[in-house]
Amino acid sequence: MNKPLPPGQFEYPSFDRFGLGLFAKRLPHSPDLKSLKIAGDVRREMIVGRELTTLQRVEQVSDFHCVTTWSYRGLRWSGVRFSEFYRDVVQRCAEPLDGADFVVFRGQDGYAVSMQLKDLMADEVLLADELDGEPIGIAHGAPWRLVAPAHYGYKNAKHISAIEFWRNSRNYRFPFPYPNLMDHPRGRVALEERARYLPNWMVRLVYKALAPGARRKMRAALARQREAAPAADARR
Ligand SMILES: Nc1nc2c(c(=O)[nH]1)N[C@H]1C(S)=C(S)[C@@H](COP(=O)(O)O)O[C@H]1N2
Ligand SMILES: [Mo]
């Protein structure tokens, strides 16, 4: 039973490594390093690792929607619920200050993206480390990636190394040189919150034109990496 696709999306036949061109050649330096830094407006900055292994593991099948208009259905992720991670690890150990609900994810590749805490507390939001029953691998976000199915792909940070909880957006910008207007403050798929200020028809048109080039770039970089280290990652 297929849910209809959200507005402005089409179904793409494969789930390829994708992202902004700047990050094509920046594969994660430590895909097996499963510790995360918790920082921002918190009483105690810390690095958590073992704490993550005590959280209940969950599995979920969800659809994925890239802001450039392609979607892929039925990805089987597993990992831990972000809400449980927040309550049992972040609140208990790092103690965010009141109002620290502007959340920034940073990746090992230098990527950074913001999310609102209230959106992260939905049951379907995971910190995932497995896809289709196998470790996620360097293409799709090892060691940890955010799975937020109600939000566009660019909010689903890969290769997460740090999660920051801030009281305002002062310490954050979308990765330079990309304009901040590419980063909508919410980014909800159902409401077509693709970007700031620009009309959606224009965003769709521009992104749709750029997507094939980005996909080629990401694929080529991955192929080069696999040539250099063939055993490291055989997935997809
Ligand atoms: N660290 C990091 N996370 C990222 C990106 C990236 O370039 N680097 N690209 C984003 C975008 S635009 C998309 S569509 C998805 C792509 O996920 P995939 O490579 O697993 O298909 O990752 C998102 N998260
Ligand atoms: Mo995307």
UniProtKB/TrEMBL annotation:
It holds the Pfam family Oxidored_molyb. Residues 35-168 form the Oxidoreductase molybdopterin-binding domain. InterPro entries: OxRdtase_Mopterin-bd_dom, OxRdtase_Mopterin-bd_sf. Signal peptide: none annotated. Gene3D superfamilies: Oxidoreductase, molybdopterin-binding domain (3.90.420.10). PANTHER family: OXIDOREDUCTASE MOLYBDOPTERIN-BINDING DOMAIN-CONTAINING PROTEIN (PTHR43032:SF4), PROTEIN-METHIONINE-SULFOXIDE REDUCTASE (PTHR43032). This is Molybdopterin-dependent oxidoreductase. It comes from Aromatoleum petrolei.
